[in-house]
Design a protein that fits this description.
Distance between the termini: 48 Å
Largest sheet: none
Shape: globular
Oligomer: single chain
Helix content: over 70%
Order of helices and strands: HHHHHH
Number of helices: 6
Strand content: under 5%
Length: 150
């Protein structure tokens, strides 16, 4: 359990670095998040790509909830941190005027996380690559509704 816990921590840290590296390439946070969603969908549709990052975290949460409460708690803590990272990015976008004032950044962060979790679960069904890319585009377009300027 200890080794698995360490692996889960490293897995989450690497995912956090990848998000930060991706976002550092964008002046507009909303554009960066939209492209992040699209690129995630594209990577899920690549048959040669390694398994997606959140799969280990979500699978741990789902599988360990009744058998290994400490690991389930760790996975839940990691998912909460990911949600907070999205919320912080969205709050920063809102403060910069990229999002409408009425945008609820916490709620929107949960929506993005749920969409990503769903995308990765959908990818396990092995749909056509274009279907996953279309899904990524649909996910990215959710943010357009909250932009201060369309």
């Amino acid at each position: 359990d200890g080794l698995f816990s360490e692996a889960l921590t490293r897995y989450a840290e690497q995912g956090g670095r990848e998000l930060a590296d991706h976002m550092s390439q964008y002046d507009c946070i909303v554009d960066g998040l939209q492209d992040y969603l699209r690129s995630m969908a594209a990577s899920c549709s690549d048959g040669n790509a390694r398994p997606s990052r959140a799969c280990m975290i979500v699978k741990t949460l789902l599988e360990a909830s009744n058998t290994h409460p400490a690991l389930a708690d760790q996975a839940n803590t990691i998912l909460a941190a990911i949600e907070r990272a999205f919320e912080q990015l969205l709050a920063q976008a809102k403060s910069r005027g990229e999002l409408v004032a009425a945008a609820d950044c916490g709620r929107l962060a949960r929506l993005l996380q749920a969409q990503i979790m769903g995308l990765r679960a959908m990818a396990e069904r092995h749909p056509e690559p274009q279907a996953l890319q279309d899904l990524g585009e649909d996910m990215a377009s959710l943010l357009d509704r909250y932009r201060s300027q369309h």
